[in-house]
Amino acid sequence: MQINQRVSLPNEPLPIVIIGAGGIVKDAHLPAYKMAGFRVQGIFDPDIKKARSLQQQFPGVGQVYMSLSDLIEDGLATRAVFDIAVPASKVNRILEELPKGAAVLIQKPMGETLEQAEAIHAICQRKKLVSAVNFQLRYAPYVLAARDLIDRGLLGSIYDIEIKVNVYTPWQLWDFLFELPRMEILYHSIHYLDLVRSFLGDPNKVYASTIKHPKMPDLASTRSSIILDYDEYTQARVMTNHGHEFGLKHQESYLKIEGTKGAIKIRIGLSLDYPKGMPPIMEYTILEDGKGWQELPLEGGWFPHAFVGTMAGLQRFYQGETEDLPHSTADALQTMKLVETAYRSSEEGGTKF
User: Which of 79, 78, 139 is closest to 108 using CA atoms?
Assistant: First the structure.
């Protein structure tokens, strides 16, 4: 049985101009665009040395711009897609400078609060930007394969989704996280909440708790438990613990989906032994075929393969090749509302014993 793991690429890819030269651009954006054959027209970062370093590492990067205005001017002339990969607090100012009607991909999260997300969405609407947020986990090969099985009805009605992450994450790699009043859900579990929404839509109820770790007191939170209730049969759970420093033996990072006719279990290898990571593994079982659990050979993982999908989908929508833009800023705003609801539940919920 053929199971789809790939996104459709645009017929005539547009050039890309990147704003920001941080680690996510080096580790994911540029490798993904090289893989897909997308042309990176140029890159700008206030730290010109960082931008030049990326140009040296990725010869396909056309030029290093000396200013944001130069990048925008050239991007407008070539109808390039603007790829914004900067801290969330700086997105609004950049959006205001982009030309009306431009195509723009915004790195997640969509602001650091719901108010910032709403402001970003308002700017995109006012300027008629064709805008999307880089919630790329939706486009990982194993997620595309899971969606293919579900869309074909092979798993029946989906009633349970579980995501568990029990790993050791070296948060010191990202200094800016130590200054934030919100961390784990906003910068990590947000991917899982967005993924659940992509399968099940918006929940009816949210129960959540996100707390600190005694060995990571300078971080707002590193462990979260989130329950999303949909109806009397359907529930999703996101459980994360980033402080499991006791070796790989009992580390876990998985997505499990259960339906009335079958189930899927995926090892999300990126989070294991981070930043080295481990290969992803996908298994599925369909009750009626009687074959038991089968492993699907995968064509890639979360980094960098999933980043092809967010850019390809935006380009195809911008050029009229598809009417669907699942990761649009309008949809991303709903994910940000879910994040806000989880934080509110954590702050206000809990029954005293």
Answer: 139
In sequence order, what are the residues at sequence separation of 6 or more whose Cβ sits closer than 8 angstroms to the Cβ of residue 246?
Answer: none
Instruction: Please give the biggest Cα pair distance in the chain.
Output: 64
Q: Which residue has the tokens 């009607």?
A: 101
- Rg of the chain in Å (alpha carbons): 20
Q: Can you tell me the distance from the alpha carbon of 79 to that of 99, in angstroms, rounded to the nearest whole number?
A: 10
Alpha carbons 342 and 345: distance in angstroms, whole number:
5
Q: How confident is the model at residue 235 (pLDDT cuts 50, 70, 90)?
A: very high
Number of neighbouring beta carbons within 10 Å of residue 54: 21
Alpha carbon 310 to chain centroid distance? Answer: 9
Is residue 102 within 8 Å of residue 75, measured between CB atoms? Answer: yes
Given this model, what pLDDT does residue 46 score?
96
- Position of tokens 């293919």? 148
| For residue 208, pLDDT beyond 80 | yes
Check whether 351 has a pLDDT greater than 80. Answer: no
Dist CA 52 CA 58 (whole Å):
10
Distance from the Cα of residue 223 to its chain's centroid: 19
Q: Which residues contact 249 (CB under 8 A, 6 or more apart)?
A: none
Task: Name all domains of the chain by residue range, CATH numbers in brackets.
Answer: 16-137+310-318 (3.40.50.720), 141-301 (3.30.360.10)
Q: Which pairing describes strands 294-296 and 63-64: parallel, antiparallel, or unpaired?
A: unpaired
Q: What is the mean pLDDT of residues 112-128?
A: 97
Bridge partners, residue 106, by sequence: 84, 133
Q: How high is the pLDDT of residue 193?
A: 98
What is the pTM assigned to this prediction?
A: 0.96
Beta pairing, strands 63-64 & 40-44: parallel
Torsion (CA) 196, 200, 203, 208 in degrees, nearest 10: -20
* DSSP assignment of 200-232: H-S-SEEEEEEE-BTTBTTSS-SEEEEEEE-SS
- Contact (Cβ atoms closer than 8 angstroms) between residue 129 and residue 104: yes
CB atoms under 10 Å from CB of 173, counted, come to 10
